[in-house]
Amino acid sequence: MRAYAGLLPAIPFLAAAVGLLFGPRFPRLVAPLAVYATGAALVLSLPIWWLARDGVVVETTRELTPTGAFPITVGTRVDGLAAVVAVMVCAVALAVQVYSTQYLHGDRRYSSYAALVSLFTAAMLTVVLSGDLIVLLIGWEVMGICSYFLIGHYWEQDWVQGAAVKAFVMTKLGDVPFLFGIFVLAADAGSFRIGDVLETAQTGQLEHATLATLLLLGGVVGKSAQFPLHSWLPDAMAGPTPISALIHAATMVAAGMYLVARLYPAFAVATATLAVLGVIAAITMVGSAVAAFAQDDIKRVLAYSTVSQLAYMGGALAVGAVGASMFHLLTHGAFKALLFLCAGAVIHVVGTNSLRALGGLRAAMPITFVTMTLGLAALVGIPPLAGFFSKEAILTAAEHVMAGEPAVEGAPLPAAWVGGLVLVAGLVTVVLTTAYCTRLWLMTFLGSRRAGVVAAVAEESGVAQPSADESAITGSQPAHTGSPAVGAAHDPPPAMSWTLVALAVPTVLLGFFGLSAILLPKWLPGGEAGAGHPALVPGLVTSLISVGAIAAIGWYVYRRWAADPVADLADAFLGRYRAVVEDGFGIDRLYNRLFVRPTYALAHAIQRTDDDVVDASVRGSGTGARALGAVLRRVQTGNVQTYLTGILVGALVVGLSVAAAAR
Amino acid sequence: MRLVYPLLVSALLFSIGVYGVLARRNAILVLMSVELMLNAVNLNLVAFDVWLGDGLRAGQVFALYIITIAAAEIGLGLAIILLVFRNRQTSDVDALRELGEYEHDRLVEEAAEAEQAIPRQAVREQAAAQ
Question: Distance between CA A250 and CA A92 in Å, rounded?
Fold first, then answer.
């Protein structure tokens, strides 16, 4: 029974292996295999959830083979947090698999796609449940490679390949320090096992806690797309939309924050790291929310929004509110997956990603409209939807820290300015989130279709390309590609729309689970002790401020939109700065100038060195040897008598020298 | 008899042989010079045999062996020279330099030129025939 949790990653992994090996030969079995395997994982995860209910930590460990100074063990460590996150991962993965059966219906790469999603699920569950840092790292990297493959699903386009490589390289950039962070932790704790590391940290024996956690933070920043390694996530939207929902919104990018929570005792003794995390989170939160407002691609809006929401989790961790952070991770997983799948439905049906070409879909797509409205409301934080509770829990925790008291009992107390920074950034981000969500909602569903714009956009804009290419590749739904007339829009097929409805349920209800200790808090870190879990209950002051701000900004944006429903709100608000903001403040261009071009220059220099120095010396040794040989070749005249003369002279010289030596 | 007389004769014979091998151009004369050198050795062997009074007469036995082998060798050598002469209409050692480095290169070039020349010549011949 103790080793039961190990089954959980094994099932999707087997499904992935079978799918990759036999999928192409039995195309009709691919979808059932993927869906039922993920469903089985979900069912199996429920008992684990129940087992971990009272703060019990179930740990199994098995050393497969001796591996040097610190043994690498294969085993699981199930605590409350791991259990709930595992359930969340399985649930979202199931939703995405079901949704994909319709969304990628007829795609010729569907079998490898489904298998890779299963493999990703297995890797994510490994990260969530593993009791050993090295095994966790393996899962972490497998997730990265799955993300790479799935972003590059439509690899026929150059820019898709570019996005996949960019995502891979930028996350790997963070994973290098991450690896060394694991080594430092293991060196201090004398073991790779998470249990040992946490015990060492709790007894205060972690000597290089700040160094180790800062290095780990590199991997977290890369994986969770935080500033300065955030710019891969918006580009990762080149992948199919269900992938954006699963990997680039609900699970993989959240794994970074989950890891911090998992190793929180180590971070808790490193206040410097927490301060760095707080600053990163504040910058990311505000910056990406502003960038989200200027995007034209509906998926890029959601991608920047994901970056911003992940920063909320980071900010919560920085102020010591692990429970609130993980609560937001769960609610965000639900509503952001819902939002992406809704966006996928819109793209699937209408055939464009461009907000400028959308509009007036409310009547045509009622299910999508209602579910997406709920998702956006949860994202904004309108009570009583899930996002309100989790976001307010974070803001309240930041407020506590600013006032000089810990976020929850027993939590580390960072400097008050960290709390203040997170609180201010969080409140500003609430305002910005309201603005971009309202813009997205109005431009997608209200008003009328900008029919005249559609054709022009589809022709001149590269933004509209992916959806058209998606349909071109899948070959399905040809009616929805060409000219997206208003009459063509309707709700997506049942497999897709029912997934939306299913995800809308936690989007609405999950927030209430934070209110009572017996529902959710006792699974989250810091929730075991005591009857109540005040950290997850919204504080009055911050709630009033945010709700007031949401109402005011929402109304203001609506008024501006109502004045001219055809114009793009981003142009109205940002004016001539829009291009810069849409470009993500030019950070990519900056990186291009700072890192990419010098790297190319260095590569060219190395190539020239290779040609002109290394190869030249090799070639030179060849020609040199030939030149020397030419001198000796002159002796080879072809005249036998010359040779014989040489032999005679030689024999005489040898004989005479021997004779001279003998005397 | 003093040992020095046969040794002087033998040295003289050997030197003539060396001169012949190194200086004569005709391959047959080169072979004959080789015979001279061999016989100088034979003379030495016999002279030392007598001088030493060897009971087994090893020197004379060696001389007999060398005569036999020289006969075989000259047979082979003459056969080779005959073939060379048949192929090239010469037995001049100086002219047989094809294995020399530069000589070889020059010959290869000449052969290539000749090969290029042949078709042109053939075309001309055809034209003339028509």
Answer: 7
